[in-house]
Amino acid sequence: MPGVLLGDVFPNFEAETTIGRIKFHDFLGDSWGILFSHPRDFTPVCTTELACAAGITGEFKKRGVKMIALSIDSVEDHTNWSKDVMAFNGETGTPLPFPIIADDKRSLSVQLGMLDPDEIDKDGMPLTARCVFVIGPDKKLKLSILYPATTGRNFDELLRVIDSLQLTAQKKVATPVNWKPGDKVMVIPSLSEAEATALFPNGVTCKELPSGKKYMRFTQP
Ligand code: BEZ
Questions:
Q1: What's the pTM value of the predicted model, to 2 decimals?
Q2: Cβ(119) to ligand 1 under 6 A?
Q3: Half-sphere exposure of 124 (CA within 13 A, CB side)
Q4: What is the pLDDT of residues 69-120, one digit of tens each?
Q5: Could you tell me the CA-to-CA distances from 52 to 3, 30, 56, 145, 155 in Å, in that order?
Q6: How far is the CA of 12 from the centre of ligand 1 (A)?
Q7: If we measure between CA atoms, which residue out of 163, 122, 186 comes closest to residue 32?
Q8: Ramachandran category for residue 63: left, alpha or beta (phi over 0 → left; psi -120 to 50 → alpha)
Q9: I want to staple 216 with a disulfide (CB 3.0 to 4.6 A). Which of 7, 157, 190, 207 is the partner?
Q10: Distance between the two ends of the chain, CA-based, in angstroms?
């Protein structure tokens, strides 16, 4: 089955993009990366997504995350459509602040499992779904999300998961439901009480539960 699983080294593919030919690992360097695909250029939901992504590039930069988009259209289409995207943002004349991969042969989309069999173009060929891959500095896949063409993504959520991924890569914690930066986090279950006390100088509070089991351990990271 095509696709990349969590923990896999992300393929070091070569591709044509709006900034020329790239080798993906060289493009990433030592940074985190986010690769997000969209079904087609010159389509409304995709335009809102890329415009939103362009508007918050500073947020990705702050987190050390390099951005790259992908669809099955050509570099020429990407370049022309980018002008619409930036105009939609009210920034006519400003270049799109991240490259777009031109996967017009669909080879990368097949390799990464990104095609949506329910979204067909006029020639009967499948379009790319709305995939998101977050890749760590070790080039391994940390997160993947797959949305259909008809549902646009939430880029605030993408920033939130990146905050969680980066925090949990550094500390032995996990982020609970609806967590946002600054909230308390959970101590991971594999840590003993002694280890947790030593690791979290801000203290660990444990919620009493009917089972008597002490697994709901909160701390301020
Ligand atoms: C859109 O981006 O608006 C879109 C693209 C393909 C199918 C449905 C919607």
A1: 0.96
A2: yes
A3: 0
A4: 999 999 999 999 999 999 999 999 999 999 999 999 999 999 999 999 889 9
A5: 27, 25, 6, 18, 7
A6: 28
A7: 163
A8: alpha
A9: 207
A10: 39
Q: Which of 45, 47, 119, 147 to mutate to test the pocket of ligand 1 (most atoms within 8 A of CB)?
A: 45
Residue with tokens 């605030």: 156
Q: How many residues does the chain have?
A: 221
Q: Which atom from ligand 1 is nearest to the alpha carbon of 47?
A: 2
Query: How confident is the model over 166-211, as pLDDT tens digits?
Result: 999 999 999 999 999 999 999 999 999 999 999 999 999 999 999 9
The Cα 47–Cα 85 span in angstroms is: 6
CA distance 185 to 216: 10
CATH class name, domain 171-219:
alpha beta
Q: Which residues contact 66 (CB under 8 A, 6 or more apart)?
A: 27, 28, 29, 31, 32, 33, 34, 60, 98
For the chain, the domains span: 8-154, 171-219
